[in-house]
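Narrative of activities, Objective 1.

The group set out to show that a structural description can be obtained from nothing but a protein's sequence at a throughput compatible with the screening campaign. Below is one input-output pair from the validation batch, recorded exactly as produced.
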Amino acid sequence: MIPEKLLIYLLLFLLSLNHSFHAQTSSLVSLGQDGKLVYTADEVGTVVPDFSGVGYKNSEVPIPVVPIVKIVTAISGDNTAHIQSAINEVAAFPLQADGFRGAILFKAGVYEIASGITVSASGIVLRGEGPITEFKATGTSQYDLIRFNGGSVSINSSSKKKITDTFVPVGAKKVTVESGHTFKTGDWVYLRREPNDAWITMLGMDLLARPSNPDVVNWTPSSYSINYERQILEVNGNQITLDAPVMDIIDPVYANGYVSKITSTRISNVGIENMKMTSTFTTSWSSGTTNVAHDEEHGWIAVRFSAARDGWAKKITAYYFGYSCVNIGSSASFITVDSCAMYDPISKIEGGRRYSFNVDGQRNLVQNCTTRNGRHDYVNGARVPGPNIFYKCVANSQKADIGPHHRWATGTLFDNITGNGEMNVQDRQISGTGHGWAGSQIMFWNSKLNKIIIQSPPSHHTNWAIGCTAPTITNVGYYVTRTKGIVESPNTAITAIPSLFIAQLNERLTGLQSNTSVSSTSVYERFAYVAHGKIIFTTDIASPYTVYAINGYEVAEGMAADGNSLSLARGMYLLKIKNQTIKILL
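Output recorded for this entry:
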C-alpha cells in the first residue's frame, strides 16, 4: 500500500511530466529569467500590447466601500420618482475629498420602476442588500433601467499636433509630435488615428456595396477616425510617453496620427452594486416545440454607462432584459464590471438583441461575469478603441459568437473566456449594413470554446489566439476565408502565464509600488515560502488559499498542502491563508 501523501506527490510528478511534453509558453510574450515579461517584436516592431490599463482608476486601487449617506425603502407601486428623488438629494451633497458624495442603500424589497433612472452627478453609488433588493423594470417600452450619464468629452482642437514618426507599431508607448506643442506630464489626451482611402482599399472595405442590397455601404475614411484616451507620463522635447500603448498601426501610407488634449466634464466615481434587476414582460409563444418569448416592449438594458469615467457595476444579476446587463457606451472609460450575470433575456434571437455585456467605450474591464441564453455575450461594437478586457467570464447556452462584432474594434483582450459556442474575429463582409472587419489587434488568451474563427487583416495588422482550446480553430469565416491569425499552443494552455491580464497588471502595479521590502526569498512560518518564481506551501494541514493582485483582484485559489506550489508571473501579490494575509513579492 502506497502512503497517501507519497501517492499525491507521485501524481503531481506524473502530471508535471505530461505537461512538459506540450507547449506551455508563447514565443510572443514569455517570462524571462528574472520573472519579467519578455515581448518579441515582429519585423515592423509590433509587440503584444500591454492591455492592463483598464477598469476603475486604471485598476490601480480596489473598488472602494463608500459610506452610506441615505437609506431608501421600497414603496407600493411605481418607485421611479421615489428613487430619482433620493439620487437628486444626494447629488446636492458636496463632493468629499475622496471624490464621493456617498452611497444610497436600498433596503430589501421590490422596487417597481416604470421608466428610466439617471445618475448625472459624480460621487454617487447605488447599493442593495443583495438579491433581496430587486429593481424591477415594469414599463412597456424599451428603456435603460439605470443610466450613469453626465457631461461630455471632446477634443481641444487648438492643441492638436501631428505625429511625425515615419511608422508607429502596435505596442509602442512613445510618439513624436511636431514642434510648438503645449503638452505636459499628466495631461489627458486623445491619440487620434485618421485613415485614408488607401487604408480602406487595402482592407477591401471599398468592395462591400451590392446593387442587390442597397443597405450595405462601403467604408469611408472620415467614419473611421478613432480617438484613444491616454495620459502623458513624460515629455522629452517633442517625444511623448503615453500610459497605454498604441493599439493600431500609424503608417502615413494608410493613416496619420495626432495628439490632442481632452476637454472632459464627464461624471466620475459612480457605481451600482449588490442587487438583483429584473424586467417584466408579456409573451407570445411561437408555434412548434420550442417556446420563444417575443415581447420586446420592456426593460432593455439594466445598467448603462454613457458619459462617465471611473465607475463600476458589481454583483448585479439581471433577468429578462432584452439587450444587456451592462452596456458601456462610447463616451465611457475606466469602468469595471465585476461578478455580474445576465440570465434569460426576453427578445428575439436575432440582430441587435441579447448583447449581454457590450463595450463600446475604452479602457474598460469586464471580469468574473456569467451569461445564459445570450447572443453576443462579451462583445465590442463599431470603432471601439482599446485597450478593453474581458477576463475570466463564462457563457452558457450561447446563441451567437463572442468577440468584436463589427467595424474595426482594436485592442481587446479576451482572457480565460469559457463558452459552449464560438469566439471569433473575422471579416464579416456584408453582414448588417457592411460590418466588414470586426477587429484587429484582438487577443484570445487561454480560452475554451467550441469553435474559434481567427482571421488577420493585411499589412501588419494581426489577431492572436494563444493557448486556446477548441475542436476547431480556423480562418474559414462566415462569409470569406482570410489569412489566419497568429495561433500558438492550440489546445494547450499557456501555463507559465495563466492570465495575460493578471501578469501584465501585476508587473505594472509592482512598478508603482514604493514598498518592495518583501524579499523573494522570505520565509512565512507554517504557511509558505517563495523560491524560483513560485509560492511553495508548507502548511501541514490542507487549507484553502486565495491569491490577490495588489488592487484586490483575485488571481488564483485552491487548496494548499505541504509541498504543493503555485507559479505566478512576476509581481506583488497578497496571499490569504488561515485568516492571515501575507504580502509576497515574486
